[in-house]
Amino acid sequence: MYTQCSHCRAVFRVTMKELTAAQGLLRCGECDTIFDAMKALSTTLPDERLGSGNGRDLLGEARIHNLPLGSLAEGSSSTNPHKTGKHISSNKRTSKSRKFLYLSLFALCLLLLIQLFYSYRTKLLEYPSTRELTQTVCSWLACELDNVRHLDQIKLLSHTVYTHPNTPNVLIINTSIQNNATNPQPYPLLEVSFLNQRSEVVALRRFTPEEYLSKEQQGELMPAKTPKELSLNIEDPGKDAVRFQLRFL
């Protein structure tokens, strides 16, 4: 039996089995048009049905095609178990690929966040609002926190100022400080400034840990929750100085 595309007039040789499987709808192999093969179905070639020389000329320009398996219309795919199985398998592979892609992106984002956290952990520890969370996360990631400074956790417990008994024009400042952080940290830089009655700085001196620690203590960290007694010698700024300030840097 024969049928003809309603769009490009291409002729196809078909069987009833193929038409039944396709529910009468075929896809043209020439122009890709889906057409109703039952409307043009015939047991004779188109020129024989037309019964004229014109018909023979038309057939001479056309070609008779055997119906390929891929020419069944999309709507009839459910009648082809092999094709349906391939379609389901393809969908499963696509779904697995998407899941793998999403998991890969999530892992990369997580790795980036961890790297950023590790790089800025010192800065985060300087702020009370993020310090506790940072310390908790660092305990999970085994971050090194021993050398992180928490200047706001160093407290001045007491201080006294008096003239050096043996050296003229030299003052002695005895002070007690304590590290209230949960971890040891480096000793701070000490800044001593003397002010006049108008709160203007008349003298200023900064002491490094190497200057105010003993040789045995140098290189050590300031222990947590332990008062430390320090002694500083500084040149007497004169009578204009009425009070002094001590800052940790």
Automatic annotation (TrEMBL):
It comes from the Bacteria. The keyword Transmembrane helix applies. The chain crosses the membrane at residues 100-120. Residues 1-35 form the Zinc finger/thioredoxin putative domain. Pfam families: DUF3426 (PF11906), Zn_ribbon_4 (PF13717). Keywords: Membrane, Transmembrane, Transmembrane helix. InterPro entries: DUF3426 (IPR021834), Znf/thioredoxin_put (IPR011723). Residues 70-91 are annotated as: Disordered. This is MJ0042 family finger-like domain-containing protein. It comes from Thiothrix eikelboomii.
